[in-house]
Write a structure and sequence with these properties.
Blueprint: H1 4-18, H2 21-58, H3 63-81, E1 94-96, H4 102-115, E2 122-126, E3 131-139, E4 142-152, H5 153-158, H6 161-173, H7 181-200, H8 209-225, H9 227-245, H10 247-274, H11 286-293, H12 299-311, H13 327-335, H14 358-394, H15 402-415, H16 422-431, H17 436-445, H18 451-464, H19 469-484, H20 490-519, E5 527-528, H21 533-543, E6 551-556, E7 567-573, H22 579-592, E8 598-603, H23 610-617, E9 622-623
Parallel strand pairs: 2-4, 7-8
Antiparallel strand pairs: 1-2, 3-4, 5-6, 6-7, 6-9
Helix pairs in contact: 1-2, 1-8, 2-3, 2-8, 4-6, 6-9, 6-10, 7-8, 7-9, 9-10, 10-12, 10-13, 14-15, 14-21, 16-17, 17-18, 18-19, 19-20
Length: 627
């Protein structure tokens, strides 16, 4: 289904809910009823036909015709019932019981009673910094609901008890019963239909064909129509939770969660994975995570993280998990004033709620993390070691070429993303002001407050190189949109309009490149890759991590539509991999390889190109068993 088919009902749902409130709710209810009518109505018709045919057979009237009708009715019953038997995937995490964590379950029971919500059928603990409630039913959207609480251990480490209980209460509020339960019911129903739709995508049987076709039409439209009501429900759940823990505590919980989520992603995981340089065996992160999450976030980072969260716009695409309003709107609705950093950060966390099972679940999650990341950790360790060895070869050189200085900066960033490589790029540009690699590196190395200098460099690179125009336009628009949020000036607005127009022009250039690649033979006009020994060794080392890769050829392909761009093509022999697995591997290879240009990964064994590649390109750069 096309996006445009359901964007319109989404766009009109919020004005409709604000204006003719009752009419809007009635339309949502009728659309919800339509889904049940499809499920139940088809079964009722099929059963009615079956009973009618059976009665005629008993009366011995027209045996063959009524037998065919009975068979048709049975087929309709099977088509209607089989999709309902699909089971949802089990909830991720470790199952907790009241004996494992009595304090936690006592707190959940108190929240449940105050919110007037049903009991949890199961509580799971996983490794994410979040909390959510998942509701499933025995037969898709029919039958008794099963409510499961999925709680992240990092969340327990990050928030003190009162703030954690506020977030738990916010989730429980979506299950409440009472006078205003309609919005909560629609909120849950959206999740149920979306989960049913998702589960059915993996069932390609003919019995599920009719149901898939209906859901492909129904689900996006129902999600779009009920979008405004679901977003209002988020505000309502915040208010109900605030009644339990206080408005200030609830607002502080939302802000602290946003800040610590960014800190975990941008700071902690980088520091943890950097330890792979000294440790070839994975180190579990949770002890260190507990220590740092219970500490105040540094003011400079916290302020930047808060500004980033406040600048984020709420998502308006009609999916299931996008109904949360923007942070600034949620805090404004709670406290009637702009969001600000907590005066006091959480200092102890809430992990004590897991006693006496805390140590055992910690060890289980640590073992699971080591097992899940063993391969990636080993690969990262080897990559950091190779980078350090190459740096040690470059350091003694009394004179380094420009390419060697660029390589030095790249290796330093591999070892430490916070390395001060700015001085290297500035030194290169003093000698070669038009070096595009140094300009790009300096733009990335400059801090956010130096937006004016970044824009000057982007302007220079945009005029200098056609092949960088798409990247420079995107970067400039992103910088200007961030600058304009507080109080845009007229010159800034004009500058943003100019860069947006340039971005559209650059997209046309990129479209011409794509058209040339599609219309010309990939094997025509190929050239050697021209990588140096270290770059080629890096490519071979990275490719050795893909066990299903039998062999690969790397070449450059000049493009008349973009002659300055270095375009690399990796022809990959993936053996007996399925099409889906081959696409996934190609995407991973594309992300892992660091080449001085644009890379395309082409599978040759499935496309019949293998013999031609072997004949025209020659020896592969990698083959299984090379390293």
């Amino acid at each position: 289904m096309e996006q445009a088919d359901y964007v319109h009902p989404l766009r009109i749902s919020e004005p409709a809910s604000a204006g003719k409130h009752r009419a809007y709710r009635r339309s949502v209810f009728l659309f919800a009823a339509l889904g049940y009518l499809w499920l139940v109505g088809g079964l009722v018709i099929a059963l009615g036909l079956l009973v009618w045919a059976a009665s005629q057979l008993i009366a011995d009237q027209g045996y063959v015709a009524w037998m065919l009708l009975a068979l048709a009715a049975l087929v309709l019953c099977w088509i209607g019932l089989k999709p309902l038997w699909l089971r949802a995937a089990p909830a991720p995490g470790i199952l907790l019981t009241a004996q494992d964590a009595p304090e936690l379950f006592d707190a959940l029971e108190r929240i449940r009673r105050k919110i007037r919500a049903p009991r949890m059928d199961a509580v799971y603990l996983n490794d994410a910094l979040h909390v959510r409630i998942r509701q499933t039913r025995r037969w898709a959207v029919l039958g008794r609901p099963r409510n499961e609480l999925i709680l992240g251990l990092p969340l327990l480490m990050a928030l003190d008890r009162n703030r954690l209980l506020g977030l738990l209460a916010q989730e429980y509020a979506h299950l409440r019963v009472g006078p205003d339960r309609f919005a909560a019911w629609i909120y849950r129903l959206r999740l149920s239909w979306a989960a049913f739709h998702q589960n059915l995508q993996g069932d390609t049987s003919l019995a599920s064909l009719a149901m898939r076709r209906f859901l492909n039409w129904y689900c996006p439209r129902f999600l779009a129509t009920s979008f405004a009501l679901a977003r209002q429900e988020e505000y309502r759940a915040d208010i109900l939770a605030a009644r339990l823990v206080g408005k200030a505590a609830m607002a502080d919980a939302l802000v602290e969660l946003q800040v610590k989520q960014q800190w975990l992603q941008q700071q902690f995981w980088f520091l943890h994975w950097r330890t792979a340089f000294k440790h070839p065996i994975p180190r579990a992160p949770y002890l260190a995570m507990q220590y740092w999450l219970a500490r105040p976030v540094k003011p400079a980072f916290a302020q930047r993280a808060l500004q980033t969260a406040l600048q984020a716009e709420p998502t308006t695409e009609p999916t299931t998990d996008d109904t949360h309003p923007a942070l600034r709107d949620r805090v404004q609705a709670l406290r009637r004033k702009p969001a600000q950093l907590p005066q006091l950060w959480s200092e102890q966390g809430s992990a004590s709620l897991l006693r006496p099972a805390y140590q055992s679940v910690m060890e289980t999650l640590e073992q699971q993390w080591r097992a899940d990341h063993a391969t990636a950790w080993r690969q990262h360790h080897a990559r950091l070691r190779r980078s350090d060895e190459m740096l040690n070869q470059l350091r003694p050189l009394s004179h380094r070429s420009t390419m060697q200085w660029l390589q030095t900066a790249q290796l330093l960033l591999r070892l430490d993303q916070r390395a001060n490589v700015r001085i290297i790029y500035e030194a290169i540009l003093r000698e070669e002001p038009d070096n595009p690699f140094a300009i790009v590196g300096l733009i990335r190395a400059l801090p956010e407050p130096m937006a004016d200098i970044k824009l000057q460099l982007l302007e220079h690179l945009h005029a200098l190189r056609v092949d960088y125009r798409f990247w420079t336009s995107e970067q400039a628009v992103e910088i200007l949109e961030a600058v304009l949020r507080p109080a845009p000036t007229e010159p800034q607005m004009q500058l943003l309009a100019m860069w947006r127009e340039r971005a559209e022009q650059a997209q046309q250039l990129e479209a011409a490149v794509s058209a040339e690649l599609a219309q010309t033979s990939l094997l025509q006009g190929l050239e050697p890759h021209q990588l140096n020994a270290f770059e080629l060794g890096e490519v071979q080392a990275e490719l050795s991590n893909f066990r299903a890769l039998a062999q690969a050829w790397l070449v450059r392909k000049p493009l008349s539509s973009m002659p300055q761009r270095r375009t690399f093509i990796l022809f990959a022999d993936m053996g007996s991999l399925s099409d889906e697995a081959g696409l996934a591997m190609g995407d991973k290879i594309h992300k892992r390889l660091e080449l001085p240009g644009t890379l395309y990964v082409i599978r040759v064994d499935a496309s019949g190109m293998l013999n031609d590649v072997q004949r025209l390109v020659g020896d592969p750069v990698y083959w299984r068993g090379l390293l």
